[in-house]
Specification:
This protein is mainly α. The chain is built from 9 helices and no strands.
């Protein structure tokens, strides 16, 4: 099949079509490891042609499958970042702020289990730190600033650097959420928010 003559500029792409493709891709990536997924599978799930995929995400030589996975990941994380920023508005204390971050992430996976499974199956560690969106950057900067203030105030452990403290926090949080999905446990993660956050809080405070 002849490939597309070039990728359409984002301004010329139909947002409805793009949303349908990315929603379908999340479902496919959630069910299979990245290397097992084909563009034909995604096209069938999205009810579109391979030509459309190439026009929206580049042809196979340009890494269209990687571009599509990155688009799905960044779209989901951008939604999470926006929701996080909304929930953090007006919260002043370190504990309440961190508790809200913990809850929002758990709630995100409760509401979007396929996104969580996609991250488990198809998102390798090297992808996490690359090409972040403006919303993700703002969220990370905000969170790092809060952790640093907590360390300087003598509330949070200052024997490690602030980025390591951030990695520890997110490591516990994401591992808990993703394994809940991977093991097919029943119930919502947010139902355990209080006890899980209390355990983590005791681990990172002085």
């Amino acid at each position: 099949m002849q490939k597309g003559t070039g990728t359409l500029a984002l301004s010329r792409q139909d947002p409805v079509v793009r949303e349908r493709i990315e929603w379908a891709a999340v479902q496919v990536f959630a069910d299979s490891a990245f290397h097992q997924v084909t563009l034909q599978q995604i096209a069938r799930a999205a009810r579109c042609s391979l030509q459309t995929l190439y026009r929206y995400y580049g042809d196979e030589r340009l890494g269209s499958k990687e571009a599509l996975l990155n688009a799905c990941l960044h779209h989901g994380l951008e939604q999470l970042a926006e929701r996080m920023l909304d929930h953090l508005a007006g919260i002043d204390t370190f504990r309440d702020r961190l508790s809200k971050v913990f809850w929002v992430v758990l709630d995100f996976f409760d509401r979007n289990p396929q996104m969580g499974r996609m991250m488990i199956n198809s998102v390798y560690p090297g992808r996490w730190g690359s090409d972040t969106t403006s919303g993700q950057q703002r969220l990370t900067e905000l969170f790092l600033s809060g952790l640093r203030e907590g360390q300087e105030a003598g509330i949070l452990n200052d024997q490690v650097t602030t980025p390591i403290l951030l990695d520890f926090f997110y490591g516990v949080l994401l591992r808990s959420a993703q394994m809940h999905l991977l093991r097919g446990r029943s119930g919502r993660m947010t139902d355990q928010h209080g006890v899980l956050f209390d355990m983590l809080w005791r681990a990172i405070t002085v």
